[in-house]
Design a protein that fits this description.
The chain is globular. Helix 12 (393-420) packs across helix 14 (470-479) and helix 20 packs across helix 22. The chain contains 23 helices and 31 strands. It has 805 residues and is of the alpha/beta class. The strands form 7 sheets. It has a 5-stranded mixed beta sheet. A 5-stranded mixed beta sheet has the order 9-11-10-12-13, with helices on both faces.
């Protein structure tokens, strides 16, 4: 019998306290059944949660005897120790620097201690005089590296050397151009490279690179050199300063081509490198049709300006090529956007071809007339004030406090989940402290927190990317219990599957069951469907039937093979969709759309799912359950295709109290309910209200919508353009909500079987190839909307809506 488990992997972030206190345990492992954590990978399914927790720490060196020090070492946890004779005056300067390194090293889960040796001490670390001038780095009780104290000359050198030793596999040190070319060729089409030159190991710049590698080391390949000849061989003769290049290798599919390289022009500090990498992750070019003063991108958040290349339909292709060339020239210095003049409601001077917007708030945009690219680049570079980001100690102390609050909030969801699953014999929930098990977290590619993973023997770990609420986690776990897709072996079993009887305990988590029908010889189509099912594991119920008698089902449900059968259990109906020439991504999109309800109740959690449809919302606000007649009228309009360009939905103020605030932002006073409104969030922000003196009937609704289409109705308000920002960069909950709706972790599991919780035969342990956590890339594509064409489908979509509901 297989079991499922959750683990908790917090990374340690220590805080200074007014009084020295003993360190309390960072985490208490939660388990629903008695099982050793070392046996988790030998059991069935494990789901792992990784979070940040903090424990109090002293702000001075712990002084221990050798025996006491070695008794405190914990498996998997890194520790730096300096062995010395008590009261030795020769080490006072080094001890001052080592004391300064305590806090930054503890930020990475590394403890620091001074070990006092006595003459009669028999430990080999206290045996010789020359040994007493070294520091030792341990992981558990295993010695990783020894450092002569003269190379640990200050706090930067200490942090740099220790992280360099611990990140040996993430950071490749090279000495020749051939080494660099080999790495570049190996990563083309796979990953990007962060290549750094520092004058020496242990410098502040080396520390900054190592700290960046600690955060981004599993996302990008970090490469380091101190060889001036290597720097000169790539065309940089400034050997007196440290440099960082970003090699754009992931997009290079032709192995004969060289990866594009972008040089970071700011000094190498930890925060400057972070800003630089964020600009490398941002879209190269963004198309917009909005007022330039209202557009917001990651560049503005990082203090960089925006450059709008003004285009029109007649010269669109040429303007886009120009904009892409400019974007490459200004990469890391400014954001570049293509602005379509034809679709813009804001007036632009006729001869202006470039708009320049500074990052400072309140500064008006500049309308420019520039004749060539060089003059544009020169104008931007001469007006951009690149400020070196200073590391503010106050901010550094505030952020961990906020991250403690986020982790504690998530822990409560995790505890609630454990309560709901109590007594489930096939489920094991655990949590792991990454401060105490840093080696385990490193092997599992855990670089950000919180992280949720599910493990099942013989299969690749699956990273959960949805919302971190109890119900969302529960749904993911329950739907992950079945195969992906389920292999149906008879017509009778297929009918039970479609009726919901086969997995009736899962219907509450997914009201739609998907069955793929294929002839036995449709090998490629079956492979595409199986890939789609694997991709949607934990988010949908999928099955496949490809027996010789498949025509019985295809004839009964009027399906042309290959086909999908969508069984909607709430409505009690089954519909068929042909799959001819549909690839895996097409099938994923079909199933994802099928999971959406026709007339859903909008909540805070599911709102992003429906916003992604890029349609105006037709919302019925109700103080409780809606009148069945209203629902019938709206569903009839849906059936007759009158609402294809809208997203019809309803909001229950009792279930979602924030709806009252929404209505008060639309009206001066709280209007009587029920109330029907149309809200266009995607461009313009207009809000229209259905006349309160009319009954909500099919005929009245249709007439009102036709008036809207003809531009005969006045809006009641226009929503301001405001960006939704996360409280901290590492906790982008809005992006998580989007990910739950649109993206699932890329994964390819071994062959699945249909039985629930059956022991797998494959005993091979698979490493997680998809556990690299990437912060979402901001995109912004805004489609134009006006009264004459707002019912038409837009050709472009954007990732985040910049209007308040």
């Amino acid at each position: 019998m297989q079991r499922t488990a959750w683990k908790y992997y917090p990374r340690q972030q220590d805080h200074n306290t007014e009084q020295n206190r003993e360190k309390s345990p960072a985490c208490v492992q939660l388990q629903l059944m008695m099982s050793s954590s070392f046996n988790i990978f030998r059991v069935g399914i494990s789901v792992v949660i990784m979070c940040i927790f903090y424990k109090s720490a002293v702000d001075s060196l712990s002084e221990l005897s050798p025996q006491k020090y070695f008794s405190t070492l914990q498996p998997g946890k890194a520790s730096l120790a300096y062995f010395c004779q008590a009261d030795s005056p020769r080490t006072s300067i080094f001890l001052e620097e080592l004391n300064e390194a305590i806090t930054p090293l503890q930020d990475y889960g590394i403890s620091v201690a001074k070990v006092n040796c006595v003459k009669e001490e028999t430990s080999r670390y206290c045996g010789k005089e020359e040994d007493l001038m070294k520091a030792y780095l341990f992981r558990g009780n295993i010695l990783l590296r020894e450092f002569p104290t003269d190379v640990l000359f200050d706090v930067n050198a200490i942090v740099a050397h220790v992280l360099f030793a611990l990140l040996f596999n993430e950071v490749k040190y090279i000495t020749t151009l051939e080494d660099l070319q080999n790495i570049e060729n190996a990563l083309k089409g796979k990953a990007n490279i962060a290549f750094s030159y520092v004058r020496a190991i242990g410098t502040p710049e080396h520390r900054a690179v190592m700290e960046a590698a600690f955060v981004y080391g599993t996302t990008y390949q970090f490469v380091l050199t101190t060889e001036t000849a290597l720097l000169e061989s790539i065309g940089n003769e400034d050997i007196e300063n440290a440099h960082l290049y970003f090699f754009h290798c992931k997009q290079v599919l032709d192995l004969t081509l060289q990866c594009r390289r972008t040089l970071m022009e700011q000094p190498l500090t930890t925060l400057n490198i972070h800003q630089f990498i964020k600009t490398m992750e941002a879209p190269l070019l963004t198309e917009v049709t909005e007022d330039p003063q209202q557009v917001s991108t990651v560049h503005l958040q990082l203090g960089l300006p925006l450059v709008f290349i003004v285009s029109q339909q007649a010269t669109y292709e040429a303007d886009r090529r120009t904009a892409e060339w400019v974007a490459w020239r200004l990469l890391g210095k400014a954001g570049v956007l293509l602005l379509l003049r034809d679709s813009l409601e804001v007036d632009i001077p006729q001869h202006s071809n470039v708009i320049f917007r500074r990052a400072e708030e309140g500064v008006p945009v500049e309308f420019l007339v520039l004749d060539d690219i060089d003059s544009l680049i020169s104008h931007v570079e001469s007006n951009v004030h690149i400020e070196e980001i200073q590391e503010d100690e106050d901010e550094d102390t505030k952020s961990p406090n906020m991250g403690q609050a986020v982790s504690m909030a998530f822990l409560q969801s995790y505890i609630d989940l454990a309560i709901k699953l109590k007594g489930t014999s096939t489920m094991l929930l655990t949590r792991v402290n990454c401060a105490d098990w840093s080696d385990l977290c490193t092997k599992q590619n855990v670089t950000e927190f919180p992280v949720v993973k599910m493990y099942k023997e013989g299969k690749n770990p699956v990273s959960y990317v949805g919302m971190l609420g109890t119900e969302d986690l529960l749904k993911f776990i329950q739907l992950s219990r079945i195969s992906c897709p389920v292999n149906i072996t008879s017509v009778q079993e297929a009918e039970e599957y479609l009726s919901g009887e086969l997995y009736k305990d899962l219907i509450s988590y997914s009201s739609v069951s998907v069955l793929g029908l294929f002839s036995p010889n449709m090998t490629t189509a079956k492979e595409d469907f199986t890939e789609a099912g694997n991709y949607l594991k934990g988010y949908a119920i999928t099955g496949i039937y490809s027996e010789e008698d498949v025509l019985i089902l295809s004839d009964k449900y009027a399906a042309t093979l290959p086909a999908l059968l969508l069984s909607r259990h709430k409505e009690g109906k089954i519909e068929s969709i042909p799959l001819a020439n549909s690839h895996a991504q097409d099938i994923i999109q079909i199933i994802t759309n099928a999971l959406l309800e026709t007339f859903p109740e909008i909540t805070v959690e599911n709102l992003p799912i429906y916003l992604r449809l890029q349609k105006p919302l037709l919302i019925l606000f109700s103080d409780g359950s809606i009148n069945p007649q209203y629902k019938k009228a709206i569903l009839m309009l849906v059936k007759e295709k009158h609402l294809d360009s809208l997203t019809p939905c309803w909001l229950n103020l009792k279930n979602t109290p924030v709806g009252r605030g929404i209505l008060q932002s639309y009206f001066d006073t709280m209007p009587p309910l029920p109330l029907l409104v149309v809200v266009n969030l995607h461009s313009g922000g207009q809000v229209f209200a259905f006349p309160s003196d009319q009954a909500i009937t099919e005929q009245n609704l249709l007439l009102w919508l036709k008036k809207l289409e003809a531009g005969l109705e006045n809006h009641i308000t226009i929503l301001p353009a405001q960006e939704w920002k996360p409280p901290l960069p590492a906790y982008d909950f809005l992006s998580m909500m989007d990910a739950a709706a649109s993206q699932h972790p890329t994964r390819k599991d071994p062959e699945c079987t249909k039985e629930m919780d059956v022991q797998e035969n494959d005993k091979k342990q698979h490493e997680d190839k998809s556990a690299i956590i990437k912060e979402p890339i901001e995109t912004l594509r805004i489609k134009h909307w006006n009264r004459s064409n707002w019912f038409k489908e837009g050709e472009k979509s954007f990732r985040h809506d910049n209007k308040e509901l």
